[in-house]
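Build the 3D complex.
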Amino acid sequence: MAKKVSALATASAEVRGHAPERHRTLIPVQNTIGGLGEFTLITRVSAQFPTTDDVILGPGDDAAIVAAPDGRTVATTDMLVEGRHFRREWSSARDVGHRAVAQNFADIAAMGARPTTLLIGFAAPHDLPVEWAEEFTAGVRDECAVAGGTVVGGDMVGSDTLTLGITALGDLGGADPVRRNGARPGDVVACTGPLGLSAAGLALLEQGIDGPALCLSEHRRPSPPYTAGVEAARLGATAMLDISDGLVQDLGHVARASAVDIDLDSMSLRPDPELLEAVRVLGTEPGREQEVARDLMLTGGEDHALAATFPPGAELPGHWYTVGRVEQVSEEAQEGTVGDVTVDGGRPPSGGWSHFDRG
Amino acid sequence: MAKKVSALATASAEVRGHAPERHRTLIPVQNTIGGLGEFTLITRVSAQFPTTDDVILGPGDDAAIVAAPDGRTVATTDMLVEGRHFRREWSSARDVGHRAVAQNFADIAAMGARPTTLLIGFAAPHDLPVEWAEEFTAGVRDECAVAGGTVVGGDMVGSDTLTLGITALGDLGGADPVRRNGARPGDVVACTGPLGLSAAGLALLEQGIDGPALCLSEHRRPSPPYTAGVEAARLGATAMLDISDGLVQDLGHVARASAVDIDLDSMSLRPDPELLEAVRVLGTEPGREQEVARDLMLTGGEDHALAATFPPGAELPGHWYTVGRVEQVSEEAQEGTVGDVTVDGGRPPSGGWSHFDRG
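Done.
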């Protein structure tokens, strides 16, 4: 997947005698990425990615060349660090591959653009099993197929900490980007895609509970509504983002960038039955399941649903559900006093998490 | 510098109670990036980067938008890992910033393109001093100014291992890219930019020797000839790449991709006086300095000079120096028997490094 690559071997040789070694496993060296060698692995990995109409030049040179038919390229990057953003005990390599693609292509979709291509930086311990790298690649390939993108380049280096540096590119197809700063008083706030499931999935994993399956799978492999980004732009969305840190927190970015307030209607949030089941098995007091599930929908991150604001009369397809409204800012409002997100006119919950905290 | 950012705080909260902590230093917490908080740091950092004509939308949204006036974008990515690609003892934060930009924009130049923009993933321990992040940013800013690019986006997350994931974009300005596979028998091989200095600098650092200064500075802050990439394309270069792993090794990629052999003329390599001084202070046997310096020029990596092949009659400006020739492949040559790089018709040195190995 890479071009001029700081070889795993070369990378450690660069600071010869100083690179710490890890010997955590008893995997035969020839089955580790350090044993296989990075050029062999890169060749194997690159072969996994199909070319598409967006690819003018794929992996294998100093840089890739990606089509930008309307004279603009949308670009975003994320780092995923083992132990912070994923755990090998909780997510398979394939899951991590899916998720790495999903969270980056969701950012592309959130601009109103079509995901096209990825560059993948892969920093890994020498003793990482080749199988992990290959399964990760398969996950990337499969999620790319869902999103309509492919991989055009990358880098593979040694590191004590398994770290993925993902860059996604996208195409606006001639349309205006949907930014965060266009929300206007009176606009409706609508979402598409699941909310709260990923947070519930993580809480379940933390407690060692292996279901409901949908929550676990949405945590491991979020399913952003990729095509809804371009759709929202066409429907006249005035602002949009993807929900990575939680609906309330992320809409705060829209509210501040647009200098408006946003009020969410908690009753418009209809928890998925599996989310309700999750809050039950997580030990929620009977009778409070709906409330706790709604809190998770308001504060749980990493579902990578899309939230957008639309002009009042916009006719939205059924997969967009209205969750609130952009408020008229009073004429007396001082600078710095707008940008609030309220729920039912009041203070939002501080975090769905807190319900499950174990001292 | 980032948009929707997996917050340092959020990132560790995602796997609550599991993220290992490091307490290596006694820096007051408010002076660490964990104490300052990622949003504050990102705001400070983003303010450092000027906008340019290539930036349609800079940091602060889900993704950036970069101009691609000829309908194509050149893209490359590299990971830099502390302890593998740089050491905080040997390189200042500012040096690392310079180098991160240089090695990526060199890849853009090596396609015959003009460097335009960067996305920077920054994964760092919570106890990293804020000053390190700010000095790194200053280095990035200053090297961008040299190359003519700027930063349009990024991500900031927590990690036990300081890791930079850099993606560079570039513009071909309507020209054909210069790939690795176009070298033809009879072409001359020419370079521009220093060779061997970075490798000598690293060897000096490994031995705790603090000069010659040029070698150390070229290791810490390589100075790729950014504009020479577009120039080479205009001069009719048939193949090009930047020298990251060593002249012989990197030209091997050109030779194999072009299905030709390449012979280098060692006498055409004129070691810089400071390189000769370096090999002396590194303990080279008197009388062998020229030979050892040439070996370093043939095998030392990370200078990020450009090497290109040009048609036989090409008139090259003085900063391009001829180092060899693309060989006529005999008609009897079997598949798999071309792609060799020789020096003076024979086997190339195995590595300038080996001269200084200390048991």
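The CA atoms of residues 249 and 299 of chain A lie 7 Å apart.
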